[in-house]
Design goal:
Length: 330
């Protein structure tokens, strides 16, 4: 469990992204299955001079059961919090409050489909300065627009409204996220939850479910996923989302663009999938920590390949390639 790649990933998390300092307090929220991985992070944080608490989330808990976090308010008063369970904790309101109170929070969901630890993946080595530069190019136009549109040659055409909503970016770095970091490298926009419409051909990844085996069509009306398509893949997605037991999980609540040139969308790790440069994703359900209004039972992403993206009527991505912003913005 202590491979060279895992040690490298743990050092990136502790030393580069979270910049743990001597005398700081660190809380690691993890689960039994991922305890061995996070013990490596614990050791490196202690070597940096921090005081570390490891809290194991109860067995059987998933992102639909995040209410247990409300009982951890005393534990959450830490300089650094690393949410490293199987599922993401990033979109919960409690995380938003912890950051507001001065904690640096990293969302590090460890779900993978190939037996490797997420900490061993090469996409974690992406240059954070480069991802920041690319993100600012995109956000220059995104945050001056009210509408976004994504199209693909496969047949996707989705329209999003974001009036009053601001986009931001993740690249692992707590400093860049003003204390709120994610291992996902992406621009994210908490779009209006009832205003997305159009059709899409899903050809990338189904988040935690992994790679799309055969592309299939979906349709969105008034922000809600209305049709899954008549296919086994559509049925797989429908059954998964039904299990959340929350109508809000069907609503598009996030628009995201991958920033990581080392990441691949192969279905092995949903964090890597949604980080991959040349992709965009739509998130469903909970988005309060991103700046939205939904505190749903969970959050789920679908990833698409090679989009052309427009902010109002200006093209900012052409078939997966980001178009540089005008020089005078710098």
């Amino acid at each position: 469990m202590r491979s060279e790649q895992l040690q490298r990933g743990a050092r990136i998390v502790v030393e580069k992204w979270m910049k743990v300092q001597p005398g700081e307090s660190v809380l690691i929220l993890t689960d039994k299955a991922h305890g061995p991985e996070m013990s490596v992070v614990e050791d490196i944080a202690e070597q940096a001079g921090a005081s570390v608490t490891m809290y194991l989330i109860p067995d059987g808990t998933n992102q639909m059961d995040s209410g247990y976090l409300s009982g951890l308010s005393d534990l959450l008063c830490r300089d650094v919090i690393i949410g490293a369970a199987h599922y993401s904790l990033a979109t919960s309101d409690l995380v938003k409050k912890a950051v507001k109170n001065g904690s640096r929070f990293l969302s590090l969901p460890l779900a993978t489909n190939d037996g490797r630890s997420l900490l061993e993946y090469g996409f974690l080595t992406m240059d954070t300065a480069k991802s920041r530069f690319v993100a600012k190019n995109l956000l220059f136009y995104i945050n001056r627009s009210d509408y976004l549109r994504a199209e693909t040659d496969a047949g996707t055409c989705l329209n999003f409204r974001k009036i009053g909503r601001k986009g931001n970016y993740f690249n692992g770095m707590a400093k860049d996220g003003r204390g709120f970091a994610s291992s996902s490298f992406e621009v994210y926009v908490p779009v209006e939850e009832t205003q997305t419409s159009g059709k899409a051909i899903v050809d990338g990844s189904l988040g935690y479910l992994g790679k799309v085996r055969d592309p299939f069509a979906i349709r969105v009306e008034e922000g809600r996923l209305a049709e899954f398509g008549d296919s086994p893949e559509g049925g797989r997605l429908s059954e998964y989302m039904k299990a959340f037991g929350d109508e809000r999980i069907y609503h598009v609540s996030e628009f995201g663009i991958g920033l990581n040139f080392f990441a691949k969308c192969e279905g092995n790790c949903y964090i890597e999938d949604e980080s991959a440069y040349g992709t965009f994703h739509i998130g469903f359900g909970r988005n309060v920590a991103l700046g939205g209004e939904f505190e749903a039972n969970g959050h789920f992403d679908i990833i698409f390949r090679n989009p052309s993206i427009y902010a109002d009527n200006r093209m900012i991505m052409d078939h997966g390639g980001i178009i540089p912003a005008v020089p005078e913005i710098w």
